[in-house]
Design goal:
By secondary structure, the protein is of the alpha+beta class. Helices cover 48% and strands 20% of the residues. The chain binds 2 RNA strands through α2, β3 and α3.
RNA sequence: GCAGUAAACUGUUUUAUCGCUCCUGUUAUAUAACAGGAGAGGAAAGUCCGGACAACACAGGGCACCAUACUUUCGAAAGAAAGAUGUUCGUGAGAGCAUAGAAGCGGAGAAGAAAAUAACUGCCUGUUGAAGUGUAGGAGGAUGGGUAAACCCGCCUUCGAUAAAGCUUCGGUUGGUAAAGGUGAGAAGGUGGGGUAAGAGCCCACCAGUUCUGAUGGUGACAUUAGAAGCUGUCCGCCUUAUGGGUUGUAAGAUCACGUAUAUCAGCAGUUAAGGGCUGCCCGUCCGAUGCUGAGGGGUAGAUCGCACAGAUAAAUGAUAAAAACCCUGUUAGCGAUAUCGGGGUACAGAAUCCGGCUUACAGGUUUACUGCUUUU
RNA sequence: UGACCCAUGGUGUAAUGGCAGCACUUAUGGUUUUGGUCCAUACAGUCUAGGUUCGAGUCCUGGUGGGUCAG
């Protein structure tokens, strides 16, 4: 019961905040598309405080209003938070470190269900790489 | 009842599951758990104004430049409220816009004679040239009048020596004139009369405005009223006066770390020459050759502070589901109020240094005051 | 986030507040045996909504769109 509770948390340490790391991610990462999402990922080093660090991004060109951008990012974050347990367990077992970026590619504001479907697909694909 | 105007306020609520940021406390311990508390707006937006704050080593002055300009009150300032005058829109309640000064100077395409000095067409006086008309008188005529006739007066036709003055027309010239001149947004304030050679506020009456003086009301801008001055075109710019403005912006800037050698910086001595300084010019002021001492180029570019009784740094304040409330719309029942069952919608929009304004966006709802139309009494 | 700039035919670029031009492109015709070159003609425009003015591409205000600089 305790383990389940932890698995739904999404704290600050899991966010990718350092500017240097973000620049590295955008310049060197591998990428693939999954529905309305575009996924970037790179293997990290031992300095990281958490096995997986994630960032979410919506471009200003596609959605000029801050409200729309915030809403999409919240939905993406929610979808990741509820479905990350499997990925987390695998990486904990293998003692791997990874940094992932999720970019929103679609031009429309999709509903939560579509985003969740694409997120599950994307997480499955990441697991298949390792 | 319908439609509308102005001002003020509001801007969905509840439950379930999972979750975020910060603060305080406790426990283990340096990151977790638990408990408690706080966590987006009227515009957080646009970045259009003003200020705080910070840097530009350090006091300043003048000019230029820029902005503003009716009155009173409030305000640090931007600006706001209430009024004044003019103007546009609206049947109306109301709404929008503009507003310092006037001495001097300059400009106003096309059109029009001309955009204000004058000239041109035209009108008029004088003068000059040409042409015509025409005054004495004679003859004739009938359709005139005084009376019927004679006679007289008038009219018409024709002849007519001399030819000054006059009159008319045309041309030249001297002067006067702004009354008329198709235009134009705007044409010497308008109408009438007098006056004059012709004309003109040249003079007069009335009307419109301006300025000055007085009275009354108002804190005041102004309003009303009495008198005086013939003072009277429109717009724009220069200009004048008053007030304000140094420049750049939190990616300002501060600290630590990283990193390297003679660009630079600091202190002391020293020299007054170029040159320089985070708005242009002038003045002033300061720095300024070089030496000594210390720190130190092209490197590194990370972190913390700045930073908040919301507060981060790919950026928290949420996601999903259900219900309620309100609005729109359809079906069925009903004369109707309404009821039932479906469907759809619930705005604009997300703090990033902070305040005060302005502007723009906004589903719907509430209150107050008022207006127009209609109905009833 | 802060600071700043721009918008004229399909494209590039002019225009002192006074008739919106120029070049290329496109279309049509001519020249040529044909094509090209050349010549002639035509189409097509001031981002948008207000205001100032007798009259705005130009001046003022709001909006829209695009772009630049600063780590």
């Amino acid at each position: 019961m305790h383990a389940e509770k932890i698995s739904y948390c999404f704290r600050k340490q899991e966010h990718l905040c350092s500017k240097k790391q973000i620049d590295l991610l955008f310049s060197k990462a591998k990428s693939f598309n999954s529905g309305c999402l575009r996924v970037l990922f790179i293997t990290g080093n031992d300095n990281m405080s958490f096995p997986i660090q994630v960032l979410f991004s919506v471009s200003k060109k596609r959605f000029s209003r801050a409200v729309d951008r915030n809403r999409i990012k919240r939905k993406m974050r929610e979808a990741y938070r509820l479905n990350k347990a499997e990925l987390y367990n695998i990486f904990k077992e293998k003692r791997l470190f990874i940094q992932v970026g999720f970019l929103y590619v679609s031009d429309e504001i999709n509903s939560y269900k579509i985003i969740e479907r694409d997120m599950i697909k994307a997480l499955g694909k990441i697991i298949s790489f390792f």
